[in-house]
Amino acid sequence: MKRKIRLKGQLKTYMYWPLMLTILVVLMNIPVYYMNTKAGICVSIFTVLYFIVVLSAYFLNKPAMLNEIINFATQYATVQKHLLNEFEIPYALLDYNSKILWMNQEFQKVTEKDKKYHKSITTIFPVITRELLEKEGDTNNVQVTYGEKIYRASMNRIYFDEVTEDSDVIELENNEQYLTALYLFDETELHHYIQENKEQQLVSALVYIDNYEEALESIEEVKRSLLVALVDRKVSKYFSERDSIIKKIEKDKYFVVFKHKYLDQLIEDKFSILEEVKTIKVGNEMAVTLSIGVGVNATNYNQKYEYSRMAIDLALGRGGDQVVVKDGEKISYFGGKSRQVEKMTRVKARVKAHALREIMETKDQVLIMGHKISDMDAFGAAVGVYCAAQVLGKKAHIVIDEVTSSLRPMKECFAEEKGYPVDMFVRSEKAMELVDYNTAVVVVDTNRPNFVECPDLLNRTKTIVVFDHHRQSSEVIDNAVLSYIETYASSTCEMVAEVLQYFNENIHLKPAEADCIYAGILIDTNNFMTKTGVRTFEAAAYLRRCGAEVTRVRKLMRDDMEAYKARAEAVRHAQVYRGAFAISICPGENIESPTIVGAQAANELLNIVGIKASFVLTEYNDKIYISSRSIDEINVQIIMERMGGGGHLNMAGTQLVDCTLEEAEAQLKDTLDQMIEEGDIEI
Question: What's the maximum distance between 2 C-alpha atoms anywhere in the chain?
Fold first, then answer.
């Protein structure tokens, strides 16, 4: 419908003023009539003529004035459009389908498009999609790249009802319609300076020689200085090529500072210095290995050094021969392919034993727990710590919720009729009732808080002790007052057996207790065939002197028929993947402890010629458990870590949730393919 154009506001009042003056003339005419009738008639005639003239002038001038106003508005809009077209900031209007309606000259220069280009903005900037434009909110800012330029794209909605809010001509029924105004702000130079500033930031690193003393002892004395000089030269040359400052702070420790821009080069190079130092041969039987801790993205230099110190501690705790990069809360690992060298000295074990005794003497009771679904190593280590507490006359309890079929014969050796208290073993609920401020909690065979039998127990006391032989990950029990983690040890039972020898001169294990600790060593070493060192046999000899009986332990560790058949089935149906990996699924039906059987099957598969690593998948309690084993050629720990687990170089595992056995197997194969392609594992 065509609408009439009306004047409004002050302009309307200005146009009506002559007509309104007619009323004033009429009011003036009234007293004139009282003074003189003829004069009043004359004024009345004049008033009528005045009104006719003013009214005629109003209707004659109004269209002309409106035309002038419209012409001015048109010219003003043209000026605005002209200014917007020559606006220095690239600007474009988009419809609700993300198509370009109009663009100014700068936008044309940036995109190299003309004004007839009315395709979707996504064809120019793939990041700006229709879904992005439809997101709630008046303003969106995204970073886009076009050519070699980096822009910040700012998008503002222009609703039609806001534009026509004061209009008398257009009335919208649907006020949700809108256009999008797109502005491009060139931030190429800003990003360049930000990147340059980041690249110029200093990164601190600590470089430690893992086996300095052991390597020197393996060569003649006259060649020792040559070995040290060659290591110094390798380290200095490697980092000097990256414009670094290298300072030797101790005989086997270096402090390195380099620019952040070289960190990506080192990562891409996968810190080849780890392999380079192993090539140094001057008659030394033992290869030299390095551990490197790198601290990145801290607020100040002190914190960067602290990050590098935390990283080197983690690298050493994981067995050395690797690099740990701590980038804020993110932690990355490189290397870690070689086996850690066994320490021949027992000084550390003696120090830890005395520290454990001092802690126990100050507490009223001791709670000992291993990891969930305890195995023989965790159970045996817990029994060993229990014996230490008993020697000091302290009340002690072992926290265990689920007793597997492999543990039940051992646990029955500690029954009440055999002289052991009925509350020697307690469940997590009872442990939470027992714990108080004067309780020491000892964690064995794990150093990850989420893996312990009762995680809540760690938050109920400040006195926590950790004994473990697994390599550390980024998730650790960080509030332990005493942490004894030795990755070279074959088992936690071996560590506990050493500690018991220095704990108290009068300590004497009963045969059942010695059997239990011995069994833990036996299982984790696969009958002394894997990861066995001199100290392993020394620990076994100590336990044998305490009354451990090999025959008795073997009888206690026998499997039932169903478990034996399941293990045989897993071996029989194993498939060889990529000519080096044995992968199988262990049936879990009618088996009380399928995870134990899966681990045993993984050990059996290593006896096949050509198999470098074995993986057995088991479904249990709505989770998929993967047990991985190797002899010496493949580091299964880094494979399991990639899948969220961990362990040792030749013995590791992980747990997967919300997936089937088929999906878990596919994920395992994808991980192996990816790591082979990246060069992390070699076959």
Answer: 150
Contact between 626 and 654 under an 8 Å Cβ cutoff? The reply is yes
CA dist 663 and 661 (Å) reads 5
DSSP state of 422: T
Q: Residue 460 and residue 443: Cα distance in Å, rounded?
A: 14
The distance of Cα 113 from the centroid of its chain, to the nearest Å, equals: 43
pLDDT at residue 73 tops 70: no
DSSP state of 120: B
No. of H helices and E strands in the chain? 23, 23
Q: Which of 193-197, 228-232, 363-367, 651-655 has the lowest mean pLDDT?
A: 193-197
Amino acid at 20: M
Angle, vertex CA 297, rays to CA 317 and CA 246, nearest 5? 65
**pLDDT score of 200 more than 90:** no
* Angle, CA 120 vertex, CA 118 and CA 123 arms, to 5°: 110
Report d(CA 658, CA 680) in Å as an integer.
27
pLDDT above 70: percentage of residues in the chain: 89
> What letter does residue 3 receive in the DSSP assignment?
P
Structure tokens at 419: 């002289």
Nearest C-alpha neighbor of 292 from the set 262, 261, 271: 271
When pLDDT is averaged across residues 107-115 and rounded to a whole number, the result is 84
Return the pLDDT at 29.
76
Distance between CA atoms of residues 288 and 395, nearest Å: 46
**Model confidence, pTM:** 0.59
Q: What is the pLDDT of residues 451-467, one digit of tens each?
A: 899 999 998 888 999 99
| CA 148/CA 122 separation, integer angstroms | 18
Outline where 86-185 has alpha helix (H). 105-111, 130-133, 160-163
Report the distance separating Cα 437 and Cα 459, nearest Å: 11
d(CA 556, CA 676): 41
Interatomic CA distance for residues 256 and 208, integer angstroms:
11
Q: Scan for tokens 């007052």, then name that residue.
A: 481
Average pLDDT over every residue of 478-494: 86
For residue 1, how many other CB atoms are within 10 A of its CB? 2
HSE-CB at 24 with a 13 A cutoff on CA atoms is 5
CA 447 to chain centroid: 18
